[in-house]
Amino acid sequence: MIKPLMAILMFWPVLAISNDSTGYVATGGVQYLKNKDIQMFSEDLFISKKMIKVDYQFKNLSNKDVTETILFPLPKVENFFESDFADTDKLLKSFNVQVNGKSIQPEMHVRVFIQQDDKSAPVDLTTAFKKCGFSEKELLNPWNRLDYEYENFEKKMRNCKNRELQKVLPKDKEQAIAWSSQVIYSWKQTFKANALTHVQHQYSPLVGGSVALYPEEDSKAYCMDQNFKAGLKKAKSQHAPFQALGYILKTGANWAKPIQKFKLTIERDAGELVSFCWAGQVKKISATQFQITERNFVPKQDLNIIFVHVKSGND
Q1: Contact 260, 39 (CB under 8 A)
Q2: Residues 295/260, Cβ–Cβ less than 8 Å
Q3: pTM for the structure as a whole
């Protein structure tokens, strides 16, 4: 019997500080609903603003083959936005999966949600949208940003007689309809008995930022220590433009055992300062790279990384 391998992401909120700001939502890895037979044996994660690469080794601890449907969900992206946004279309085009050294083509599923208010959970209305004649290209609009005519989308929604959809639309026709789109990749995966399965992901991350840094406000989110702040001050960059990205790590805690071998490498550009929160030891391994290694690792925190361009190459 094939069971679903679910992946649930915690979403980093979209930044919409001003018309000069850019937003992003965090991406991450696969999550397994508890299964006593499959362990994430190792994870080798590389993060830069240009590329995220993850090498996993999954170990089947049993003496029988286990076949699952793997799901890799990307974040929900809002259709309506008031600022520049991270390059979501580039992420879709760059997403690549290899299993045991061979490229595979995962199936792409598009889900659509409407959130009535800040207190209620988003409602999955994919079926209703399709019954109203929305094509997959239209459902993907929050990701590819090919059509900026929101009025056409809203008119099509309001003119549709589908009861499920009409039930959640704002009663005030002057109020914008807040809907979002989520892309989920899936593929069937067989984990051979008493063996390691090598899975690799690679994609362009969603990078955002702002025109000005405010250390007193952003310090906690990125764990800016005294050395980082001193570097900002030395370069006279306390309020410099910055970029940031998020990565979901906590999904790695949902496998059969702790991750036996974990390695994280973060790369910055030359002439940048980088800061992020981490409870363990961080080593600088080159002029632009920082590395973390852990044994029997259970991730309990996600990553929010800030990159600040400065004139000098201080740490």
Answers
A1: yes
A2: yes
A3: 0.78
